[in-house]
Design a protein that fits this description.
Pfam families: Fer4_20, Pyr_redox_2. GO terms for molecular function: iron-sulfur cluster binding; metal ion binding; oxidoreductase activity, acting on the CH-NH2 group of donors, NAD or NADP as acceptor. InterPro entries: DPD_II (IPR028261), FAD/NAD-bd_sf (IPR036188), FAD/NAD-binding_dom (IPR023753), Glut_synth_ssu1 (IPR006005), Glutamate_Synthase (IPR051394), Helical_ferredxn (IPR009051). The radius of gyration is 23 Å and the shape is globular. α10 links the parallel β1 and β2. The longest helix is centred in the C-terminal third of the chain and has 20 residues. By secondary structure, the protein is of the alpha/beta class. The strands form 4 sheets. It has a 5-stranded parallel sheet with strand order 3-2-1-4-16, sandwiched between helices. It has a 5-stranded parallel sheet with strand order 6-14-7-8-9. Strands 10, 11, 12 and 13 form a 4-stranded antiparallel sheet that branches. 34% of the residues lie in helices and 16% in strands. The mean pLDDT is 96. Bound molecules: flavin-adenine dinucleotide (FAD) and iron/sulfur cluster (SF4). Flavin-adenine dinucleotide binds next to α10, α14, α15, α18 and α19.
Length: 488
């Protein structure tokens, strides 16, 4: 433990972000530099708890008190060694993770929790700066070949672990660039893509082959994969978006959030984008109150929308934890993202009833009504509030109401069974087909980057065990209870 009274002496402090009116002029990350001495003070706040609940809260089982201690002692090499032992990509999670570890930090019971995510990002960036992260190809190669389908965080983590185990790994990605939602979903103002590219180039030098514009089931024959590879890992994400089939859905100007975000991310990357969906000069309504919706808001501000309104069906969450979500569970409290700080309006308890258009078939308004949630026989059901129906102007509506499951055609081609909800069916990451495995959103449904990395690592262990009859790839520490299990 770095400093016994650190948690009493120092307040939680995070880097300042650039002023909203300045940062919406570009797509660069929003945080300003933070002096190292301040990060050391943040690490000093860690109490090195007897039972470190932060460790249980982290889906990767990151060994948080130990890396906090190493940071306090400015032993960056040791901190990096500890962090990278459980997390392949802390340079991503340190930027965009909602930090369930912080929600379960013991200090968070009566004070702001330890700034774990910021410390993680600092360790990762220091590790690159000091040259600790460099290509380290395996010393010994096996004669086994593994195909990973999909290059999101689950596929990348699986590929990284399997390559470390000495297997020959090829990642097939249907897009022209690697990264999955890290690349095309999450905007640059949250995660600049140079950090994704930096990691991919290391993995490339370590011997992983990346094949882009390679869609398995379209221009890559699944039978070829079955013939040429000893094992296959399906990491194709949960990409089928939920729709809103209400009157007027066919009007021009209604788009899925991912179509909108992908185009902007491509443009920032320098790709040519035709028929770009643009928010410029438009009244934008983002339907869906989650993170994807919030990314649409930040992107709309940067594209110079004339107004931005975000709608959520559920009631406004409470500001603080209550009896329904006590520590150390994930708090279902009101979240205000950096995009919300940049402007726009948010409304809760609102139902979108109809899209209305002009004579050219273009969206011009959305009909809304306020709703209340009532308990009917133990179930919450929504009721419209009489007299609240109104039309709001809207020329661009973005549907950010989640994703239901992965696309079907690949699973059918590979003979892989689905669950009732359409996810890839698997027992411990193994599908019904002997040498086919799965990880990430394709298996667990839409989730988080940290869970995708965790799943990719666990699936890699299963693959290695299958190929070699044993595995030395590290397992997630199971000596602590899983807070995510408590939440079910
Ligand atoms: C807009 C948005 C913002 C998000 N923001 C955050 C955030 O801030 N923090 C966070 O923790 N999580 C966030 N998430 C969730 C997170 O991005 C996902 O949980 C995570 O990326 C899932 O990883 P994955 O590898 O399973 O799938 P994905 O990242 O979806 O990657 C799947 C890949 O498979 C490829 N693919 C699909 N089919 C084929 C095929 N047949 N052949 C070849 N390739 C194929 C796809 O092109 C894609 O590249 C966000 C999600 C969205 C949509
Ligand atoms: S729970 Fe918080 S205070 Fe305790 S060890 Fe983890 S980070 Fe440190």
């Amino acid at each position: 433990m770095g400093q016994q009274d650190g948690f009493l002496k120092f307040d939680r402090e995070l880097p300042d972000s650039r002023p909203p009116e300045k940062r919406i002029e570009d797509f660069k990350e929003i945080y300003q530099p933070f002096p190292e001495v301040k990060t050391k003070k943040q690490a000093a706040r860690c109490m090195d708890c007897g039972i470190p609940f932060c460790h249980s809260g982290c889906p990767l089982g990151n060994i948080i008190p130990e890396f906090n201690d190493a940071v306090y002692h400015e032993n960056w090499e040791e901190a990096a060694k500890i962090l990278y032992s459980t997390n392949n990509f802390p340079e991503f999670t340190g930027r965009i993770c909602p930090a369930p570890c912080e929600a379960s930090c013991v200090l968070g019971i009566n004070k702001p929790p330890v700034a774990i995510e910021h410390i993680e990002k600092t360790i990762a960036e220091k590790a690159y700066e000091l040259g600790y992260i460099k290509p380290n190809p395996p010393q010994v190669r096996t004669d086994k070949k593994v195909a990973v389908i999909g290059s999101g965080p689950a596929g990348l983590a699986a590929a990284d672990q399997l390559n470390k185990a000495g297997h020959w790994v090829t990642v097939f990605e249907r897009e022209s660039r690697i990264g999955g939602l890290l690349r095309y979903g999450i905007p640059d103002f949250k995660l600049e893509k140079r950090f994704v590219e930096r990691r991919i180039s290391i993995m490339d030098e370590e011997g992983i082959r990346f094949k882009v514009n390679a869609e398995v089931g379209k221009n890559i024959n699944p039978d070829m994969l079955k013939d040429d590879f000893d094992a296959i890992v399906i990491c194709t994400g949960s990409t089928v978006p939920r729709d809103l089939p209400i009157p007027g859905r066919e009007l021009k100007g209604i788009h899925f959030a991912m179509d909108f975000l992908t185009m902007q991310n491509k443009e920032v990357a320098g790709d040519k984008v035709e028929n770009k969906i643009s928010a410029e000069g438009k009244n934008v309504v983002v339907i869906g109150g989650g993170d994807t919706g919030s990314d649409c808001i930040g992107t709309s501000h940067r594209q110079k929308a004339s107004s931005v309104l975000q709608l959520e069906l559920m009631p406004k969450p409470h500001l603080k934890r209550d009896d329904s979500d006590p520590w150390p569970l994930w708090p279902m409290t009101l979240r205000t993202s950096s995009s919300h700080e940049e402007g726009g309006e948010r409304k809760w308890g609102v139902l979108t009833k109809e899209f209305k258009g002009n004579e050219k078939g273009e969206l011009s308004h959305i009909k809304l009504v306020d709703i209340e949630w009532v308990n009917q026989g133990g179930r919450q059901s929504m009721q419209e509030i009489q007299g609240t129906e109104r039309d709001v102007p809207c020329e661009l509506a973005l549907l950010a109401i989640g994703f239901s499951h992965p696309e079907n055609h690949l699973l059918e081609n590979l003979g892989v069974e689905k669950t009732q909800t359409g996810l890839v069916g698997a027992d411990q990451y193994k599908t019904n087909v002997e040498n086919i495995f799965t990880a990430g959103d394709a298996r667990r449904g839409q989730s988080l980057v940290v869970w995708a990395i965790s799943e990719g690592r666990e699936a890699a262990r299963e693959v290695d065990q299958y190929l070699m009859g044993r595995t030395e790839l590290p397992a997630k520490d199971s000596s602590f209870f899983d807070i995510a299990e408590l939440e079910k």
